[in-house]
Amino acid sequence: MNPGPLVFLATFFALATSWLGFVVMPQLQIGRQQQVEIKDTGEMYPARRPGLAKQGEEVYRANGCYYCHSQQVRPLGFGTDVARGWGARPSPVQSVAQDYLYDQPVMLGSQRVGPDLTNIGLRQTNEVWLLSHLYNPQLTSKGSTMPPYPFLFMKSKLALGEKPSPNAVFVVNGPKENYEILPTDKAKALVAYLGSLHSEAIVFETPPFPSTNAPAASTNAPVIATATNSVPTNSPAK
Amino acid sequence: MPRTTDEAEPTANRSVVPIWLIILLTLLAYWGMLYLNTHGGGFSSKVYAPYGSFALVDDAQPHVIGPNPKQGLKIFTANCAVCHQATGFGVPGQFPPLAGSEWVQAAAANRLERILLSGLQGPVEVKQQQFGAVQMPPWRDLLKDEDIAAVLTFVRGNKDWGNSAGPVTVEQVKAIRAKIATHPDPFTAEELQKLSDDE
Asked: In angstroms, what CA-CA distances link A100 with A104, A106, B28?
């Protein structure tokens, strides 16, 4: 018997189901997400990245930071992400699809040689730390396996007695020459991007832990949920 | 030793799939479906682990007692600040202050709710100052009960103004709205003062 049609059918079936599962279903499920208003603050979430941070996203991508750094905090009870302090939501749910609405491309990462960077914008706000760390991770984190990115910086010689620029990451007073290390536009953009990485906003998907001092809901007062997007507009029919 | 060309190609014999394998695979598929059913959250985009269904996430939403103060601020800025000023101090001789006002902070909010719904006219004393040159417009037709409850809660509890009275609920506003149906004209301070706290 000629096995050709059977092989064709089996292959077609395998490809069709994975296409349905990996492309069509996610598209139906989360393909129409939109900005939502955070009731507590009245702000729209997520915010679009400001221009410089948007450029930094490109630098992050071009330098393959996502090979070692993930941007996805797993929920409580799945791994140790929350215990490591990578999450910023006071909720059992951490990263949700909403967070990545304006990421292009979404750089979830798949391996964690270094720590998760979902909330690095909250965890490390010191720009000089971030710049020195990028220039040479050993300066801030002895023994780090992160590669240095000196090509994102400029070395600029200082004449004797010349004042270093206020932008200088650091100044070296060597025996032969004095020089300062200045960040290039790329390094500045990358640091702006890192600063824009934070997802602590409480949305419908991430209900906060019930606070212990919340007033009892026994009065006849109206009950208002903090998140407005409670209508599941894009959940597919079951 | 190289194979000779006339040796036959090896072939695989056809055989029936053993019944136990079929049963095992069926059971596995069944278990998989049960698992998806309990952990899949109905494939809703709003449901993430550890929540198993939309209803559970909905239940876990924080519930605020009373109207939302942010909403109150919005309504105040849009409707009241022109006269009473963003600072809540009003304008001497024209618009009475809401900051520190005894009308605003009275324990019973029934008079305050009437002022908002039907307006206020005639002489009124607020913080030992006389007002009455201008009339406070009624908000009955412009603001919903939720909005009035929100703005009053905001005004009464505004710490920046030194106010610290409790919230006003939508139900209270609704009840007063039903009562003022027979009183379309703006109230006077005198009329309001005659009311008891639970009227």
From this structure: 8, 6, 34
CA–CA gap between residue B75 and residue B140 (Å, rounded): 14
ipTM over 0.85? The verdict is no
pLDDT tens by residue, B138-161? 998 889 888 899 899 989 988 888
Q: Nearest Cβ partner of A227 from B49, B61, B65?
A: B61
In tens, the pLDDT along A171-211 reads: 888 888 888 999 999 999 999 999 999 999 999 999 988 76
> Cβ of A210 under 8 Å from any chain B Cβ?
yes
Q: Which B positions 54-83 lie with beta carbon below 8 A of chain A?
A: 54, 57-58, 60-68, 70, 74
The shortest C-alpha distance from A238 to chain B (Å) reads 7
d(Cα A182, Cα A160) in Å, to the nearest integer?
18
Min Cα separation B6/chain A (Å): 22
